[in-house]
């Protein structure tokens, strides 16, 4: 139960006090909504600053899934990872992205990706089919102002992802939590 424990400490002002110890888990009924809301606004800010204004959805056909593959993470760890190589070969230059993993009703993972550049739908569909994903790829342009609305649709769902599976990934150079990066490395976050 979140908040069941408390900690004794000194605040920045030098005052000694008890504070509630929060679990900071997405599954918690108290911490989960707050953490998802904070994440949604961070991702919307990143999308606005880096002009991530195209939504790409990758799916996997459950019947074509390799027998030894994890049905939830296959779309991200295999299809999207290899597709980034194809995109880099056919569209030189940096492609910034934010990818959100969603578990579909069928039990297979879907990947919703905000990208920073135009990608031809036919070509992406061919790449996806060749890499083991489904040939049906959804690609649409969205207004940068409404990115938060698109993200909230996928982030506010109660998801049952296996422990240790990342819900959100970003391209190199996009830092979701810059204060955590600063604390780990001692330097400013990359831009």
Description:
With 191 residues, the protein is α+β, with helices and mostly antiparallel strands. Helices cover 33% and strands 19% of the residues. It contains 5 helices and 7 strands, in the order ββαβαββαβαβα. It has helices spanning 31-49, 74-90, 121-130, 147-155, 178-185; strands at residues 6-10, 16-20, 54-58, 97-103, 109-115, 138-141, 168-170. Strands 6-3-5-4-7 form a 5-stranded antiparallel sheet, sandwiched between helices. The protein has a two-stranded antiparallel ribbon with strand order 1-2. Strand 1 (6-10) and strand 2 (16-20) form a beta hairpin. Helix 1 packs antiparallel against helix 4 (147-155). The model has no long low-confidence stretch (mean pLDDT 81).
